[in-house]
């Protein structure tokens, strides 16, 4: 059965009616959505999808937004052909489902994507952003991958990396004040640990009144009160990438 009584918080928001301006390509053993700006650039951003997978129009919308700001954007299928989560799935099965899709087990795929960006796209400065599941993946990569310059973790699930906070690269963390998935006490705890252990630039920002998914799973016009924060989150993401790439 579906989840009439307890919907997944990730379901809150909209599936955009958006086709994308990029193209799907084969990158090694995985598929990916790629969009390139008109002018040549050596800057690229890897976009890591949420539980709804690499084909979600919302995520491709953000990838294309990066391209309009001068970046090569690539959104690979980090589930490597496994089925993405569907809103109709039973939320009671989610924990078992996500165990087969570990956000800290994407290094092989990231290496393939980095090689593609360098060899096929001429990218030398590469950052990464990610949403929810992908936000946790960003934190993982910022802790261990030496080839990325910076990252933006957007409502990444903190509890997946509770014991590691020595980031290698500047990282921006975006959180929503009213996120059912990530309570504010977890965000406070993360800030304390980063302050103790992190030696690179970082920022943790909480957006008032917002819920999980607000940066990429809400239309700007869904609620006049939300619009400034949706736009601010996206602008902050771009500004962070501009600063470190």
Automatic annotation (TrEMBL):
Entry keywords, A to Z: Cytoplasm
Chloroplast in keyword set: no
Domain Dienelactone hydrolase positions: 30-245
InterPro entries assigned to the protein according to its UniProt record, in alphabetical order: AB_hydrolase_fold, CMBL, Dienelactn_hydro
Entry's localization field: Cytoplasm, Cytosol
Top-level taxon: Eukaryota
A GO term, aspect molecular function: hydrolase activity
Gene Ontology annotations for the cellular component aspect, listed alphabetically: cytosol
Similarity-based family: Belongs to the dienelactone hydrolase family.
Protein name per its UniProtKB record: Carboxymethylenebutenolidase homolog
Organism of origin: Irena cyanogastra (Philippine fairy-bluebird)
Lineage: Eukaryota, Metazoa, Chordata, Craniata, Vertebrata
Gene from which the chain derives: Cmbl_1
């Amino acid at each position: 059965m579906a989840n009439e009584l307890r919907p997944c918080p990730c379901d809150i928001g909209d599936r955009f009616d958006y086709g994308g301006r990029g193209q799907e390509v084969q990158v090694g053993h995985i598929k990916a959505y790629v969009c390139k700006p008109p002018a040549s650039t050596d800057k690229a951003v890897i976009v890591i999808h949420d539980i709804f997978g690499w084909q979600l129009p919302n995520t491709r919308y953000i990838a294309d937004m990066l391209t309009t700001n001068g970046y090569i954007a690539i959104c690979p299928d980090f589930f490597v052909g496994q089925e993405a989560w569907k809103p109709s799935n039973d939320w009671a099965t989610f924990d078992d489902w996500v165990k087969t899709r570990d956000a800290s087990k994407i290094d092989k795929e990231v290496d393939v994507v980095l090689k593609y960006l360098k060899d096929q796209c001429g990218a030398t400065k590469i950052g990464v952003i990610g949403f929810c599941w992908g936000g946790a993946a960003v934190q993982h990569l910022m802790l261990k991958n030496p080839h990325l310059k910076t990252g933006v973790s957007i409502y990444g699930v903190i509890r997946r990396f509770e014991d590691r906070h020595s980031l290698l690269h500047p990282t921006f963390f975006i959180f929503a004040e009213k996120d059912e998935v990530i309570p504010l006490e977890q965000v406070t705890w993360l800030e304390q640990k980063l302050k103790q252990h992190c030696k690179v630039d970082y920022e943790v920002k909480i957006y008032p009144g917002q819920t999980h998914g607000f940066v990429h799973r809400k239309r700007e016009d869904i609620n006049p009160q939300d619009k400034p924060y949706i736009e601010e989150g996206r602008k902050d993401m771009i500004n962070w990438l501009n600063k470190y790439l």
